Amino acid sequence: MRTRLLAILLAVWPAACATAEPACRDLTFEDTRYSLCEAQAGDDIRIFQTAPDGRPYGSFERINSALEGEGRQLAFAMNAGMYHADRRPVGLLIEEEVERAPLVTSAGPGNFGLLPNGVFCVGDGFRVIESRAFAAERPTCRHASQSGPMLVIGGELHPRFLVDSDSRYIRNGVGVSADGRRAVFAISNRPVTFHEFGRLFRDELGLPEALYFDGSISRLYDRGARRSDWGTPMGPIVGLVVPKP
């Protein structure tokens, strides 16, 4: 009986380990609380924009419903870039190696056009690349989303950020380690300036490249904490996909 029980436990153990997922956590930096979610190279990080019916997903719930057919679910997710009124992405978007929207390298109005902006690229590892460098290199990305502005570029804050800015919003973005093995997704839990948000990635997290996703509409899904921020339908969404238990 004991031998049989041990055999069952050994058979189940790999599946149980496969469902383990990195937990999001809260961190306080300069008197502001942030929620952080981390992924490692090899994790199933995806950009979600186009649902099976051809329409934008728009919500965490629709993504989870679509993943049920794979026996999978979101561990965490957040909005992943700016979008038009019909939820089409403003800049480059790649899903499962399919380019849904082209790269934009010109300056323009709003935060997206505040150059330098950049691209979050998921390949063998993770990269945050300035958009014009991306255009010159054209790296292979399984998933990618363009947004702007860059928060941290080569270890330096975006040159247009002001220490004394009065523009404050709930903001979210992603930073990537120098070796591309680690990506940290962050959302502020109270309004912050660009300068404050950039310092989180550079000074607290030690990440040399970081990209702003959006502000005011920023939302987080964290299954472990039973958090699913509510709001209007979103455009691009980035999430960590894990097997269902």
From TrEMBL:
**Keyword Signal attached:** yes
Q: Where is the Phosphodiester glycosidase domain?
A: 75-218
Q: Name one Pfam family in it.
A: NAGPA
Signal peptide boundaries: 1-20
InterPro entries named in the record: NAGPA
Sorted alphabetically, which keywords does the UniProt record give?
Answer: Signal
Top-level taxon in the UniProt lineage: Bacteria
User: What is the designated name of this protein?
Assistant: Periplasmic protein
Taxonomic lineage of the native organism: Bacteria, Pseudomonadati, Pseudomonadota, Alphaproteobacteria, Rhodobacterales
